[in-house]
User: What shape does this take?
Amino acid sequence: MTSAITGPIDLPGQRTQYLQYRSYRSLPTLGDLLPGVSRLTIRWWYGQDGKESLRGSSPRVWDFVPDSRAHLQLDCASHSCVDGGHDLSGIVGNLVEVGDTALQGALMCSGWRQGVDQRLVRCECLLQYTVRIEYQ
Ligand SMILES: [Zn+2]
Assistant: This one.
């Protein structure tokens, strides 16, 4: 017997969307993850130090309240990146642990890309961020 998939999931794209939706729904809320935090604001953009943004990468602001799903993992901006992304959960967790309210920094992508000689090199996509935290 083959494994049964219930629901209208036929096309690969639909299935991917469905799985992404499920994984988003399975994220903890901010209140579960960081009790005592009333608001978390992350302003982020892709770019090098000192530059406000790369062309085509405007700063974005994500605002979380205790009921929000704590979506703290950002994709890499590079299409050729493998296994990449920027995980801000550790940075935010450390801030809350010491009771700090703001931090500005940059986070290198954790992935890889193919270099000129076909060898894998580290992806150098840089995420700039400012984090603000309000406590209850
Ligand atoms: Zn990357």
Observations:
- Residues 28-135 form one domain.
- The pocket of zinc ion is lined by residues 76, 78, 81, 84, 109, 111, 123, 125 (CB under 6 Å).
- The chain has a mean pLDDT of 83.
